[in-house]
Design goal:
mainly alpha; Arp2/3 complex 21 kDa subunit ARPC3; two-stranded antiparallel sheet
Length: about 325
C-alpha cells in the first residue's frame, strides 16, 4: 500500500508531509519519556517486525500493492507513540533504500501505515479493555484480549486502506479513476485485514502467556497485590533445634551500661567532674599506673605489685583498698 511518486499531486503530498512530521514529532517526544522510564530493546524488535511484514506484498494492479502493516500489533506491545516512530523509520528506509514507495509520498505513507492504524487500533482496544479485565480466570482474560486485539488490528488495517484511498480522492491524478483505486485497495485489504487480525491475536496470546509485562495495552492492575511472604520468625519458632534466647529489657541494658561505666579498673568515666578538666581516657590511666612512683610502695608493697593487683584482680572479688590492708592476700 505504499503510494509511489506521481500518483498524488505535490500540494497534497506536501500537506501530508507537514501533518506526518508533526505527528511523528509529537510521538517522538512521548516515546522519549516512555523509554526514559523503562529502557528496553523491544522497539528495535518491533521495527524489524514491521520491516519484514511490509515486505510481504500482494500486487493489486495499477502499479501499487497491498501488504501486511503490523502497526496494530506494534501499538499494542509498545504503545502508539513508539509504534509511530518505528513506522516512520521503516517507511523512510523502504523509500530511500528499497525503492518501495515514493520519496515525495513519504508523508502520505507515514500517515497511512503509521498514524492511522496505530491510533485506530489503540483506541478500539482501550475502549474494550474493561470488558477484557472483567474476566475472572486468567485464561479467559487472555482469550478476550486476543479477540479484541485481532479485531482492533483488522479495523486499523482497513482504516489505513481507507486513508490511502482518501489521499487519492483528494490529490490523485487522472491516470486512474479514484473509484477504481478505492474499490481495488478496499477489496484487497479485506483479506489483508483478516490475516493481520489472526496473526495479531496469536502473537499477543503468546506474549501474554510468556511475558505479560511487555504488553503496553494491558498493563497490570494498580490494585493487584502479591501475597506477603510468611514471617521468618514463625518458621524459626517451629524448628525445635533453633535456640531461642530471652531478649533483655531496656532497663537491663541501661543497667549493664551503667555498671560498665562505674566498674573500678575499667579506666572509663562518665564525664569530667566540676572544676576539673576532661576525663582521663583508659590509655592515660594505664600509663599513669605503669609510671606510678615507688612512693606508693608503702601502701601496696611495691609499684609492680600494685600494678599486678589492680589489673589481674577479677571484677567483684575485692578492691585495691582491701589488697593494701596489712595481712591482705593477693589473689
Amino acid at each position: 500500500m505504499h503510494i509511489p511518486d506521481g500518483w498524488v499531486d505535490l500540494p497534497t503530498s506536501a500537506t501530508a508531509g507537514v501533518i506526518a512530521a508533526g505527528g511523528v514529532g509529537a510521538a517522538a517526544r512521548s516515546a522519549a519519556g516512555s523509554l526514559r522510564d523503562k529502557v528496553t530493546t523491544l522497539p528495535a524488535v518491533v521495527a524489524a517486525y514491521l520491516l519484514v511484514a511490509q515486505l510481504l506484498v500482494l500486487p493489486v494492479g495499477f502499479g501499487t500493492s497491498a501488504h501486511l502493516i503490523g502497526t496494530g500489533l506494534a501499538a499494542l506491545l509498545v504503545g502508539p507513540a513508539i509504534a509511530i516512530v518505528c513506522v516512520a523509520v521503516v517507511v523512510v528506509v523502504q523509500a530511500v533504500v528499497l525503492a518501495d514507495g515514493g520519496v515525495t509520498a513519504i508523508g502520505l505513507n507515514v500517515i497511512d501505515d503509521g498514524l492511522v492504524p496505530a491510533l485506530v487500533t489503540w483506541a478500539l482496544f482501550v475502549a474494550v479493555r474493561p470488558c477484557v479485565r472483567r474476566a475472572s480466570a486468567l485464561a479467559d482474560q487472555r482469550r478476550r484480549a486476543a479477540i479484541a486485539a485481532g479485531a482492533a488490528a483488522a479495523v486499523g488495517s482497513m482504516g489505513a486502506a481507507m486513508a490511502a484511498a482518501g489521499a487519492f480522492a483528494l490529490g490523485g491524478t487522472d491516470a486512474v479513476p479514484t473509484r477504481i483505486v478505492a474499490a481495488t485497495m478496499g477489496g484487497a485489504h479485506l483479506a489483508i485485514a483478516a490475516i493481520e487480525g489472526v496473526l495479531t491475536g496469536l502473537i499477543l496470546t503468546t506474549v501474554l502467556r510468556l511475558r505479560p509485562d511487555l504488553v503496553r495495552a494491558l498493563p497490570a492492575r494498580a490494585d493487584a497485590t502479591t501475597p506477603a511472604p510468611p514471617a521468618p520468625t514463625a518458621t524459626l519458632a517451629a524448628d525445635p533445634t533453633y535456640p531461642v534466647y530471652p531478649a533483655a529489657s531496656d532497663a537491663e541494658a541501661v543497667d549493664a551500661v551503667d555498671l560498665r561505666r562505674t566498674q573500678p579498673g575499667t579506666g572509663a568515666t562518665d564525664g569530667p567532674a566540676d572544676g576539673e578538666g576532661p576525663a582521663a581516657s583508659a590509655s592515660d590511666t594505664v600509663d599513669r599506673r605503669r609510671t606510678e612512683p615507688a612512693a606508693s610502695a608503702k601502701d601496696h608493697g611495691s609499684g609492680a605489685d600494685a600494678f599486678d593487683l589492680r589489673w589481674t584482680e577479677p571484677e567483684g572479688e575485692g578492691t585495691d583498698a582491701e589488697a593494701s590492708q596489712p595481712g591482705g592476700t593477693a589473689r
